Each structure stands twice: as C-alpha cells, then as structure tokens.
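Practice problem 4.
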C-alpha cells in the first residue's frame, strides 16, 4: 500500500511564508524656474479665493469631502509665513476640497489651483531659457576664445528678393556658418537645474548677448563646463597615466530666466564648443551640404536608382540609365 501524500507522522511542514517586503519612501525635492504656465499657477494662489467656505471640519464633512481618504497635500510659502492644506477630489472632479491644517476649515476651490502641480514639472517649468522673442532679435554679441564677435541680420538678395540672413556686419556679407551657429543655440535647453552650483566652480566656454534694434540688450546666455567625476576609481596599481581614460565634461547654461545653473545635454554643449573656433575666425567655413544617399535616389519615372557596385545585369529595373530603360 502507498501512503497518501502528507499523511502520517512524517508529513512535511507547510512552507514558511516570506517576510513582508518593507518599502522606504524617498522624497526628492526639485527646484526650477517657472515658465508662463507656472506663473499663471502662482497667480491663482496670490489672487486665490475659495468658491465656498464649508467651515470647521467634523467627521461627517471629512467623509463627505473624501478628506478621510486623501494622501495629497500642498504647502505654500509666502513672505509672512507658510500655509499647508490637505487636498481631496470629489467624484465629479470639477472642484477640490482644501483643509487648512492651521484653522481646520474646509474650502472648495477651483481645479486650476492643483492641475498644474499634478501635470508635473514639464507643464510649468521654463522651456525657453533665453526668454526672448526671435522676431525682435537683430544681433548677437559672442564672447569666446578671448575674442568678441558681433553677428547681425544682414540684408541680402536671394532670387531677386531681399531677405535678411545672419552674417558679419563689418563685411555686410551673409555667412551660413554663423547662421547655423545661431540656430544651434536653440539646442542648449535645460534638462535639470542646480541651485547649489556656482559659475565660479566652472570654466566659461562662451557668453552670448542678444540685442534688438538700437543695440538694446534683450538677454544673455553663458555656457559653462566642468570635468565630470569618473563613475568608478581605477583599482590600486592600475592608475597608469598613459592609459587613463579621457576626461568627460558636463555642460551648463545660465541666463536671466534660469536664475541658476541649468544642465544641458552633453552633445549640444560639446557641439557648440567645437564650433566656436570656426565661428570666431575671420573667415568661417560654411558647412558642407548633406550628400544625397544614392540608394534612395529615384531612377526616373518612379523607378529605383542605380545600386553602386553592382554590374549592369544585376541592376534593378528602371535603374540602368535613370529613365527606366
């Protein structure tokens, strides 16, 4: 006879349940300048008022307003002190309930006071670090590599039409290299802000002054860099200077709008720095036009193009002479 599994004195003990996973809540504080949408959000607090004052909270009001379920709070710091509120959302999601933790009063307020925070940093942060209107921009003063150079909008003629292009005002000649550089400055966008860093701890790569008509200053942008700390130190005995890894750099910008140093993508900062010797030279070299990919060129009448390196008998139909023959 075969004993049933689990029967008798030798039956296995049930497995011990695993210990519950303990989670640690970590709070990260981000500081960043506000853009136009952020300014509107602040204005709703400065000029804010309640739609209704529901009075002091009690158990029934706490339940009806769902303040007994919420874990959301908002703290606003003014010059004269700090106010903290617990926040809940009713089922219809058209208004919010705020519980003033100091007075224990409950207020009904507009959704606009909270939606900007809930959408996150991307919806209220500063997106254009320059804060200028390109339509008014007439010239740029560039300080880099111990030189100062002015780049201005030059009136030139293209296909019998007068247009404005970036160029050297001393020669009144448009320069594609300078135009490309000005356009590339738009790639220096902030990815993160660092209130604790100072420009004095870094090397300044360049300073740009934006001017409108009459040489009136619209704003400035400075590009800085610093050597990035290595991810891991080399093991003892392996720190041969001849084989040491090349230093990596981090790039930062500072403008009147950012107020503090802001990190930018390494590629954008590096490309801007690498372009400076050409841009600051007396005869900047224009960028080479992009070459067309022969594999993507049409072969006439919609036919495929020639395949380089293939003999005529293996060329695709229509690619022999560019006319489908």
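Answer key:
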């Amino acid at each position: 006879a075969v004993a049933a599994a689990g029967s008798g004195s030798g039956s296995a003990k049930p497995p011990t349940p695993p210990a519950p996973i303990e989670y640690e809540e970590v709070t990260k504080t981000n500081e960043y300048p506000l853009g136009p949408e952020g300014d509107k959000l602040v204005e709703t607090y400065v000029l804010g008022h309640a739609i209704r004052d529901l009075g002091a909270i009690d158990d029934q009001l706490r339940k009806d307003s769902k303040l007994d379920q919420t874990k959301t709070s908002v703290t606003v710091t003014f010059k004269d002190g700090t106010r903290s509120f617990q926040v809940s959302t009713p089922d219809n999601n058209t208004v919010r309930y705020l519980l003033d933790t100091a007075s224990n009063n409950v207020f009904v307020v507009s959704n606009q006071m909270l939606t900007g925070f809930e959408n996150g940093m991307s919806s209220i942060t500063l997106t254009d670090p320059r804060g200028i209107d390109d339509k008014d921009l007439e010239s740029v003063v560039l300080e880099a590599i111990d030189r100062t150079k002015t780049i201005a909008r030059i009136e030139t003629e293209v296909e019998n039409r007068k247009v404005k292009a970036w160029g050297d005002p001393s020669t009144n000649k448009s320069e594609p290299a300078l135009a490309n550089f000005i356009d590339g400055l738009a790639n220096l966008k902030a990815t993160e802000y660092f209130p604790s860093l100072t420009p004095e701890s870094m090397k300044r790569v360049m300073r740009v002054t934006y001017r409108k008509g009459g040489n009136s200053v619209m704003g400035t942008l400075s590009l800085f860099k610093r050597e990035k700390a290595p991810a891991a130190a080399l093991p003892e005995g392996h720190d041969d200077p001849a084989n040491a890894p090349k230093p990596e750099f981090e790039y930062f910008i500072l403008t009147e709008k950012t107020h503090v140093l802001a990190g930018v993508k390494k590629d954008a900062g590096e490309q801007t720095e690498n372009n400076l010797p050409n841009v600051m030279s007396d005869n900047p070299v224009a960028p080479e036009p992009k070459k067309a990919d022969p594999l993507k060129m049409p072969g006439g009448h919609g036919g495929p193009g020639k395949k380089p390196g293939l003999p005529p008998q293996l060329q695709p139909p229509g690619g022999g002479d560019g006319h489908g023959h």
